[in-house]
Amino acid sequence: MKKQHIIIILLFLSVKYTYAQFTLDGQFRPRTEYRNGFGSIIPDASDPGFAISTRARLNAGFDTETYQFYLSLQDVMVWGENRQILPDDQNDSFAVFEAWANINLGKGWSTKLGRQVISYDDQRIFGGLDWAQQGRNHDAALIKYQKEKFILDIGLAFSQDFDNPTGFQSAGTAYNTTGFFTYKTMQYAYLKQKWEKFSGSLLLLNNGFQNFTGTDDARTADGTSNLQTLGTHLEYKSGSFGAALNAFLQTGERQNSVNVGGAYLVGLDLTYKASNKVGLGLGAEIISGNKTNTTDKTEAFFPLYGTNHKFNGFMDYFYVGNHANSIGLFDMHASANFKLGDTSNLLVKVLNFSGDQELPSGEKSLGTEVDMVFSKKFKGYGLAIGYSHLFASDGMYELKGVTKDDAASSQNWAWVQLTIKPQLFSTKKTE
Asked: Domain range holding 39?
């Protein structure tokens, strides 16, 4: 009876709201991984990791002439993490991934409020981090304007971590959640203009981080540090040739009043479509490192809330929960994307890494990584298979704190991922 009631309610909504559209869809994404040097050098004495994780999502969208509403429920499960007949999920991973409303204000203006994915351009500074099973979201309010090929977004966020509505006055505004550049406040402006062959965007971002004094057991909130990230993303495409440039600066303060100055990221990628079945890529990126090696000042850039797995190698040795205040990075890479059929592709990418700064030994060379991903679409689902291998230089062993003699002879990572996105219900008209 419950299923019948749900169907009746959905049919009622589709009839009542003449101009409304309701969609209900999901995602089932299991991924098997073999980790033998993923994220860091694995010692020879350690056993490789092997596990299967699954992301399950249920998404509901409701669109009218005046507003859009979206809700995404998510759970991330590692196979076997719960014992048999456990009454509650052991890892407490069930969450509301997105819950937002976008209200149309007229004449190109709208406001988007709530938990949402913020993603721009190639996702270098802001991205959804869809590779990670948990993804990335923000609790924020956006004021949006769009006219033809011009976009303006203004974003505002103020974060708190207490759940007692009557405790506003006694709790104050101290924000105790830290780590991974989790911010107390955020303000940004994003502008983008498109032309026939060229597009350019400008990002002005400020993040406020809660400072503390004392130890973790007895710490006291002590003001806010503000970090500014400013930069542009430019794209050009003409025929078979394409180019994309990232240029960003950081200044201000990281958490606990660490001064940031002269921090930068510059990246250039060139693409060429050699044929209908072969696409080539060539690029380089330099990210500044810490020159002073002091605790109160740094010149190291960090790309904050981007989809960092997409950049600097799929094995996540840099800027994925690591390398935050280190020697920086100089990344040169080349890639080839082969279309093997109407539904299958093979990506091969080679990356060479060096530090922007020297390690204590004087070394800068870090090594070379080879990434390969085969993907194929089937009727109703997709399959992807990946393999990555790291050929570490002496500098990488020094950087990761594992000697060459103690490291495993091979540093590699392999994975297989299945993605199913069922369309459960929709009142949208199909062509």
From this structure: 23-426
